[in-house]
Amino acid sequence: MVTLNLPAFDCKTKQVEGKPYIFDLLRRKYVRLSPEEWVRQHIVNLLLTHYAYPKALIRSEGGLVLNQTQKRTDVVAFDRQGQPFLIVECKAPHVPLTQAVFDQVTRYNHVHRAPYLVISNGLTHYCCCVNHETAEIRFLDDFPTFE
């Protein structure tokens, strides 16, 4: 896999019928290792180890219904009251972070209404704070720490 612009970590991988799998700490099982999954696991590790997000308050591959269509958020972190705090949309390293990617996470946030959004392809990351009352979006220099 590609070296990412995220801290390296000691991940568990294995081969199943010639296909790579990585152990997902949140789902507590091995999942197919795709380039996007590689980014997702690094983002989860970053949130856990560098920003002190509690593992119990992070959900990976969570479902949501948007315009009567089932969608999946890559990573959602919740606050201590169980409300969405941060949504992360992960893309494979070769996928550019375009307006379409930002629009995707913004659409998901119409359902979740989290104050923080992140898009990342593992090489580049954009973090922003959303004021839902004024519709103002302010870009941040870093990931938000867990409150």
Automatic annotation (TrEMBL):
Residues 35-144 form the Type I restriction enzyme R protein N-terminal domain. It comes from the Bacteria. Pfam families: HSDR_N_2. InterPro entries: HSDR_N. This is Type I restriction enzyme HsdR N-terminal domain-containing protein.
